[in-house]
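Technical annex B. To support the medicinal chemistry partners, we prepared a structural model of the target in complex with methionine sulfoxide, based solely on the information shown next.
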Amino acid sequence: MRLFVAAELSEELLEALAQTSALLRESVHGHYVAPDSFHVTLAFLGEVPESQVDAACEALEQACAGVSAIPVTLAPLGSFGRAKRATLWQGFSRGVDELAGLAGDVRECLVEAGLSFDATLFVPHVTLMRAADLSGGELPMPVMEKGLVRSVTLFSSDLSGDRPRYEALQRVWLEEESDDEYEETYAGWELSGEDAVDYPLLSAQLRALGEGERTRIPVLANASALINETLPDVSWVGFYLADGEGGLELGPFQGKVACTHIAWGKGVCGTAAEQDKTQLVPDVHAFPGHIACDSASRSEVVVPIHQDGEVCGVLDLDSTSLARFTERDATGLEMVVSALEELLPGLR
Ligand code: SME
C-alpha cells in the first residue's frame, strides 16, 4: 500500500486554509486539494508491503513520544513547478524549526525500523492546489492564522478513484500545553481595536506603490513612509541594505538620524541578516549587542529581505514602547516583505 506520514493541524488553521482555497478558486484554475485532506507531509514512504505497516506505526509512536503540540502560524503562499502546472502551497512562519525537528525524528525512526522514504529536503507546507495555472497574474493574500500541529498520522493513500482517498492507519496525539501557555505564546496576536494593522491590505498597497517604478530607492522610500503612517507607536522604520562588501548600509527610512553601517551578524539587524531569520525583540536592552541609534528605543522587529535566494537587506522597525511588536506583527511584516521581494527583481 501507498503510505505517508503527515502532521495534522488544529481546526482554526484548517478553516483558514479552506478560506484561502476558496479565495483562490475565484482566480486560479487547477486541481484543488479537498479541505478535509489538508496536511503537512513529514515523510512520503510510497509503496510499502502490508507486512511492514506495523513497523511504520511503531516508528511513529517512538518518534512522537513526549513531543508537544507545535504552535504555528501560516505564512504567505508559495509555489513550485511550471507557471501553468504549478503546485501551490501555504507555508508557515512560526513553527518551521519545530516542524523540521519533528520531520527529522520521524524520518530517523523510520530508518531505524528499516523503512525507506522519499528523502527530499523538508520544507513544511500544506499543498492547496496541483496543476495550478499561475500565468494569470497575482495571487490573493492568504488568510493568516495561528494554531497548533496536534497529531502525527500514518496515512494510506488510494489513488484509484477520481480523487485521492486518505485513510488514517495510526494517529499519535502530541502533548498539549496548558491553555495559559498557549495564550502566552500568542499574546497580542489577535486583532485588537482600531490599532490592529491590516497586513494583507498594507502588502497590497505596497505592491501598488511599486507599479511602474524602475529603481529601488523610490519604492523603498515610499514603503518606509507607508509603514510609518500605518503602524501606530513606531519611532523608526527603514531599510538596511547589503553594501556589497559583506555589511549593511543605511537605506531609505523614516525617523531620527540612524547609524549608517552595520556589520553582518552585529546588532539586531546584522543578526537577522546573518541568521536569515526575523528577530522579534520585546526589550532591546536584553538583546546582546543591540545597536542603540536612539537611546529611547525599547523594542524592535527586523525582517530579512531576499533577492535571488540571498539576503539583500532587512526591514527594521523600532518603538519607544516595551514589547510593542507581537508575533502577529512579525508575521504581518514578513508578508509585507514578501510583497517587496516580488517587486525587487524588476528594479535596478
Ligand atoms: N537597533 C538596530 C540598529 C538600527 S536602528 O534601530 C535604526 C540594531 O541593533 O541592529
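Notes passed to the chemistry partners:
The longest helix spans residues 96-112.
The two ends are 53 Å apart (CA to CA).
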